[in-house]
Amino acid sequence: MAKPVLLVTRQLPAAIEARAAQDYDARLNPTDEVWFRDGAEIARRAVEARADGVLIAAGDPMKGPAIAALPASVKIITTFSVGTDHIDLEAAKARGIIVTNTPEVLSFATAETAFTLLLMAARRAGEGERMVRADKWQGWAPTQLMGVTLEGKKLGILGFGRIGQKLAGMARGFGMEIHYRDLRRLPPEVEQGAVFHETDDGFLAAVDMLSMHVPGGEGTTKWLNAARLARMKPGALIINTGRGNSVDDAALAASLASGHTRAAGLDVYDGEPKVFAGYLGLENVTLLPHLGSATIETRAAMGERALQNLDCVLRFDLPPPHRVV
Ligand code: DGY
Q: Ligand 1 centroid vs 226 CA: distance in angstroms?
């Protein structure tokens, strides 16, 4: 029997590409050519290949028109990401195309990235690194680059899902007090002593540091705006490893410039890979290039998950384990 045709938009870890090539008639993108940024081009290639499945990644724009242009042969879109904000899920559903993602396996890695940014922001690690590289370091000084400790501070976690809970576990090890805001209060075994807040105002006013873990989408667009930043304590830290569009960049940059927000650490950006120009000249913001899940172990596990979903739909006629729609 002919192997199912699989269009893969991005370069993937070698072992995942090898497995895809073994079990599928795989149309790979081994050099990561940037056609994946154009949904129409993804659809065009799917038509050309008569693809049965399309394996995309975080950010590949599968919005309504691109989904409408996919050939009737496509049964599944699987995304190499937990986030699905780059896909028009309703459009896929309307066409009867299954959409799957890669949850759970990236929670720890993404929480590690949030914690990295938290430490970097608190301890001014980006500034220090830039100073040394620029050959501007004059030696140890009693008042040089003094940051703040995490110990004893209140960490506010916006979105207490899998990633937020992993971050809470790490932060407890640093003696932090955990506060969280979510749609609803979680059971005590999940909270493990974390303080639930029923309102944004109460939450923001209570915490010293905020880590954002919202999945993106219209409901949270520019959630962290000037008014919410103003409600936070002077000297608060802001970390975002969720989605960039949940932050009002101009408001955060202004708050950082004024010193009301002491420092920020960002891994995700509205319209990435474009980064809001107002951040680039600020010393008190650490900017990472969407490294959230970027560990060798996690990317391998994400690839396995993507293939597992594809196998179920295209090879074994089984329900995929990580179906979104
Ligand atoms: C995801 O999986 O949605 C991440 O943002 C990619 O690391």
A: 26
Does the beta carbon of 216 sit less than 6 angstroms from any atom of ligand 1? no
Mean pLDDT by 10 residues, the chain (325 residues): 96 98 98 97 98 97 98 98 97 98 98 98 98 98 98 98 98 98 98 98 98 92 98 98 98 98 98 97 98 98 98 98 98
Q: Are 17 and 155 found together in one domain?
A: no
Q: Is 112 part of the annotated catalytic residue set?
A: no
Enclosing H/E stretch for 305: helix 296-310
pTM listed for this prediction: 0.97
Report how many domains make up the chain.
2
What is the rounded CA–CA span in Å between residue 105 and residue 83? 13
Are residues 69 and 175 both part of a single domain? no
Question: How many C-alpha atoms does 47 have within 13 Å on its Cβ side?
Answer: 12
Distance 174 CA to ligand 1 centre (A): 26
- Cβ atoms of residues 251 and 224 within 8 Å: yes
